[in-house]
Amino acid sequence: MDKEFKIEGMTCASCVAAVEKSVAKIEGVDKVEVNLLTKSMDVSFNDKKLSDQDIIGAVQKAGYQAQSLKDQGSASRDSSQTTDIYKEELEDKVFRLRISFPLMILLMYVAMGPMMGLPSPGFLKGMENSLINVFVQLILATPILFVNRAYFIGGFKSLFNRTPNMDSLIAIGSGASYLYGFYAIFMLIIGFRDQNMAVIEKFSHDIYFESAATILTLITLGKYFEARSKRKTSKAISKLMDLAPKTARVLKDGQEVEIPVDQIQVADILLIRPGERIPADGKVVFGSSSVDQSLLTGESIPVTKDIGDEVFTATINNNGFIQVEVTKSMEDSTLSQIVEMVKKASSSKAPIAKLADKISGIFVPVVLLIALATFLVWYFLGHGFEFAMQMAVAVLVISCPCALGLATPVAIMVGTGKGASFGVLIKSAESLEGLGHVDTVVLDKTGTITLGKPFVTDLISIKASQEELINLAYAMEVQSEHPLAEAIVNFTKEEKTKSLEVESFEALPGLGIKGKINGQDYYAGNKKVLEKLAIKSDQIEAESERLAREGKTPMYFADQEGVLGILAAADVVKTSSKEAIEKLKAQGIKVVMLTGDNQITAQAIGQEIGVTDIISDVLPQHKAQAVEELQNQGAKVVMVGDGINDSPALVQADIGMAIGAGTDIAMESADIVLMKNNLIDVVNAIKLGKATLKNIKQNLFWAFFYNVLGIPIAAGLFYSSFGLKLSPMLGALAMSFSSVFVVSNALRLNTFKALDSHDLKEDSVEDFKVNRAQLKADINKLEEKSLDILVEGMTCSHCSNRVEKALESLDGVKVQVDLENKTAHLTTSKDYDLETYKKLIEDAGYEFKGLKA
Predict the structure, then answer these.
(1) pLDDT digits (tens, 9 = 90+) for 187-243
(2) How many CA atoms lie within 13 Å of 372's alpha carbon, on the beta-carbon side?
(3) Among 595, 605, 593, which residue's Cα sits nearest to residue 551?
(4) Looking at the annotation, which residues are catalytic?
(5) Residue 193, exposed/middle/buried by CB under 10 A (0-12, 13-18, 19+)?
(6) Who is most buried in 83, 88, 448, 505, counting CB within 10 A?
(7) Model pTM?
């Protein structure tokens, strides 16, 4: 069983290591992952051997508090679990600072003011008042320690449980300074008793109440900024959940009723007005509108929704009233699954974090040993108890295991949230990190590079005119179930000029179809139909070879005497594919096309999109093997497919991407889901992965560099040679802001700019249909014939105009007259005989002299 637990009390990477270690050693626990940033723990365990209380008990034994959340993937994933986990922490830090900061300023003034010559009350000045001065410092310092007592409670509890953490370092450092203040008071009392001015002078300056208070205040200040920054990292999830409407209008017994969204049931009818957000996933049962789905897909262009179309939670109904039948419960909605996916990825661990985790497990004990060694070395070197203690305290408070603990998870959370904002859903931290190492992208052809649906690309009239061919094609194919029939019908239905009645329709298995029109037999099908009719033609062979080279499938239309014409169809390449492939190659990534097409067709498409590495003739069950062969050559492979017959290959690849899965985001086979059907998001995902990996490396470098440099300086390693030492107060300030630096650096990922798919235009069948008129115009242009006719009797522009007007009265004929050469240049997509042209010219009053040689 997989369960998630909320963990309270963790402050650093050592806390994470302690919790993981305590839970992992329980018999029956298979896997445990603790995330410092999200304050959560995911546990896989045998529920027959263990209960939630066993796991909670192990966490409590380590010194922390745990609360069981409901089963992962259950209906519990509601908005209550995505509330602001840093709200209480921030309020607590603000309360502490409101008390600590003013008192710290007063304390510093009392302690340092007289030495700096600042004006002070008379009862605080002079050696004779030093005891009063010290007691005032004690009175000011004690409330600061009290409001920040959490460091002492958590720190010493962890220390006694033999799992010391950052709070332990802070508690020991500030506690030692505070206790030393009492020692100083005791020595001052003895000094005054014995009238020993040397003792009084020494201990009136070495109090350290201000050090204890300043350490705690500065660390709390740093924790405040850290919590505020971490709060920003989770804004992607919060933003998604906040956009979901809180109420919905439902049709109940013919009446409109407003209810909370958590009361919506499957099959309810929702009433949605223009400008409102859709409260649940469903399908339109009344009305039509355009819907803004940018929340889910990152695509701002509204999508038209008619009866039967799906709509999704939190998308915006733009301009029409619609009624929607609910098809999914709230917890199963697309939005909920996206939120859950982002949360799961944010709380998972990247492989690169393993080194930091190992170091964090021993970090605090090692620092305690270094601090003890520092104290002993300086004390026995004769620098005195106070100097040795100051050095040891500096070591304790400058050490920062929290920077190590935050280096990876903050970058992962920001990266996954950023990806979700433009429709790239990353399922795990491992996948996000893996994108940074990718060097090969394998693209399935159908549905990934192409639209996955055939369209008519060529219309070639041979014995029949275009008009006759279109009419015949529609009449024959409208009754056919051939895979290309739908494409041909869609293409011809708006162009046909008359309806033909087909009698005795017959399917010819493996060949095509046969039908009788006006008592004559007509055939439509592949090349085997021509073989059956014993039709051979060099022209047909040439056209067939050309179409094959271009990756197109021809459909031949014929009668008993010969071929009337050809309609060719192809799975059209998406407008974004070539651009996306160029950008991948520009990043130094090898692009491979994987297809079940034959080599000739595959080469034709590869040439069109700029891909030279092609694996053709691959059956679906062998795609995974093709990916494995690339991996055996040392490639780090991303496989991009539609997630259906590509599932084995998606699993085999280092990273599997399912493209165009906006309505089915839960595909288990893919590591990353691309909500838009656009290859440019493959480029965006890889760029984001590389940027995140770079950010993680920067964070880890800073965390290691800071500690490696800071601890030796604090220990006084350079004091003897250069006189360089670090006060505990400066150490506390440096430690506080090292974590802030790591979190702030991760937040820079929010500035990541995804390539705008608007520039490439979102690919869809609808977009292709928009260009349908242009496609037909291009086809007509290819089929146009031209001829030059000699015309006698033209003497002026009026004559040429009359000739043009006469000839252009014919449908599909365009004319340009050259008066000087007495020639009429005709362009036509129709077949007219010369007698037709001759009659029109002579009727206009001029002499037809035949065709120009």
Answers:
(1) 899 988 888 888 888 778 777 788 888 888 888 887 887 777 767 766 656 666 666
(2) 6
(3) 605
(4) 444
(5) exposed
(6) 448
(7) 0.67
